Amino acid sequence: MTHVALVTTLLGRTDLFRSLSEADRSTVAAQMHKATYEAGQLIFSRGDPGEEMYLVVEGRVRLSVLSVEGKVLSFGHASRGDIFGEIAALDGQARSADATALTRVTAMMLARASFRGLIEARPPLAHAAVAFVCHRLRACSDHIEDIALHSTQVRLARFLLAAIAMKGQSEAGLEPVDLDLAMSQTELGLLLGASRSKVNEALATLEKLGAVRRSEGRVVCCVRALQLVAQLDNSRTAATSSYGGCRWRSTPKSPTQ
After folding, report:
1. What is the distance between the alpha carbons of residues 178 and 164, in angstroms, rounded to a whole number?
2. Whole-angstrom Cα distance, residue 232 to residue 154?
3. Can you give the pLDDT at residue 254?
4. pLDDT in the model for residue 190
């Protein structure tokens, strides 16, 4: 697959650009410029001018802000096929968050002027942009609500279910689903609004309930049990001894790093 063809395909999987025809997406792809970042490199900081939006081709990017105490508050990751930096590219204001490469990242950048020109010329893209921003706002609101109202194990169960859904395996069957989260417990804690120790405790609780097993750095999940945990409040989760129900494989346990 040629470079433009690959980017065109990735754009077609995004909520923002899938409403365009393949020919239009190819035109967008031709206007994008490649950028690479090493693990740990800051792509942009909160307050920077927002002149580009990004499409991740390879790698993972953390999107975060700093609290008044200087603590990193991570509200999302962008991985292959995800778009980030679109808010500043839409309104022309400063960046609202930091973007940091967690791994080596290859991304395609689209200039704000090019993006605005596309929106003005193609009304379906304008409608898609509004829906895209509204979806992001709702996701942020849900994330804040989760942190405020639910225990770490409930938030973790919901996070794992979302990751499973992205794999297209969200049905509550008896076969376990193997997940490679490709992140440390510390990074997972930043996404959940919890410390590394709290994440480890939550994993242990989910394991006790029969919702997960940790094996060779991966998390093996029982969807049915995770769905039950995700619906519970703190007291009911603590009072429940086990859900089980999955056909667990015989594999040696090894905690995630």
Report:
1. 9
2. 7
3. 44
4. 78
Task: Name the maximum alpha-carbon separation found in the chain.
Answer: 58
**What is 3-148's CATH number, 3.40.1550.10, 3.40.718.10, 2.60.120.10, 3.40.50.300?**
2.60.120.10
| pTM of the predicted structure, to 2 decimals | 0.64
CA dihedral 13, 18, 22, 25 (to 10 degrees): -90
Give the residue ranges of the chain where pLDDT is below 50: 234-239, 251-257
Number of H helices and E strands in the chain, helices first, is 10, 11
Distance between CA atoms of residues 116 and 253, nearest Å: 51
What per-residue string of b and e applies to 2-12 under the rule 16 or more CB within 10 Å gives b? Answer: eeeeebbebbb
Give me 91's structure tokens. 């309104």
pLDDT, residue 244, reads: 57
- Quick one: CA torsion of 87, 148, 193, 153, rounded to 10 degrees? -130
DSSP structural state of residue 144: H
Q: 72 is written with which tokens?
A: 């990193």
What's residue 182's pLDDT? 76
- pLDDT tens for residues 12-66? 998 888 888 898 899 899 999 999 999 999 999 999 998 999 999 999 999 988 7
* Tokens read off for 46: 């909160």
Domain boundaries, the chain: 3-148, 150-239
Q: Which residues pair with 150 in a beta bridge?
A: none
Bridge partners (DSSP) of residue 100 are: 42, 62
Residue 252 corresponds to which tokens in the numbers above?
């040696």
Residue 256 CB: number of other CB atoms within 10 A?
Answer: 18
* Contact of 128 with 17, CB cutoff 8 Å: yes
Architecture of domain 150-239: Orthogonal Bundle (1.10)
